[in-house]
Structures are given as structure tokens and as C-alpha cells.
Amino acid sequence: MQEKYPAVVSLPGGHSSEVMTLNHPELPGCVLFLRWSVEVSRDGVVTPRFDLLTKIPEEALQLFPSPPIGGAAEAFHSLRELLGVEAAIESMIRAVSLSPDL
Predict the structure, then answer these.
(1) What is the pLDDT of residue 101?
(2) What gap in Å lies between CA 95 and CA 69, rounded to an integer?
(3) Which secondary structure element, helix H or strand E, spans residue 32, and what is its range?
């Protein structure tokens, strides 16, 4: 995703990073963090886990209604269930970039 969307996506730990950051170039300090991990049970059941965390400065929070920012994680999980992981991530990237066809 970093190669496809270099203006928005970064991987702080390189290609083996467990975190992807989504930044809008014109909104410094507003960042979405997508963290992923894989859990393996004793029975060998593999469960991927994705968490979306937000970092929004106080000034920016005053510009946006609470539900869209506060509901970002829930919205991502709903998208993931409907579209799958890759399409949900791309939808979040488009939302962060404020562009429907990035």
C-alpha cells in the first residue's frame, strides 16, 4: 500500500512493520494508525486482528463532529466485514486523503 499511496501511507517499521500510518499531507498531526497482529490458538486456529487508532489534535477535534472521528474504528471494522481487509484499508486511505479516486 505504501508504494501505491506514498502521499498518505507510511510504515514506520519498514516493510515488516506491524503498524501502518495514514496521514493527510495538508492536515499535520491528524493520523490514523492501523495496527495488525496474528493470534494462533493452541489448536492452531489463526485469527488476524486489526485495530484502528486515531491521533487528532484538540484544535482539529473542534472542527469535526464527534461521531465520525470517534466511530472510525467501528466504521473500519464494518468495512472490513463487508469488503474484506484490503478494500477496507483502501477505503480508509481514500477517506484520509479526502479523495474519492486517489
Answers:
(1) 54
(2) 12
(3) strand 31-40
C-alpha count within 13 angstroms, C-beta hemisphere, residue 3: 1
Whether the predicted pLDDT of 41 surpasses 60:
yes
Spatial separation of the C-alpha atoms in residues 92 and 72, rounded to whole Å: 9
What number of residues does the chain have?
102
In sequence order, the 6+-apart residues with CB closer than 8 A to the CB of 30 are 23, 24, 55, 56, 57, 60
Residue 56 confidence (pLDDT): 73
31 to each of 25, 41, 44, 45, how far by Cα in Å?
A: 10, 32, 35, 32
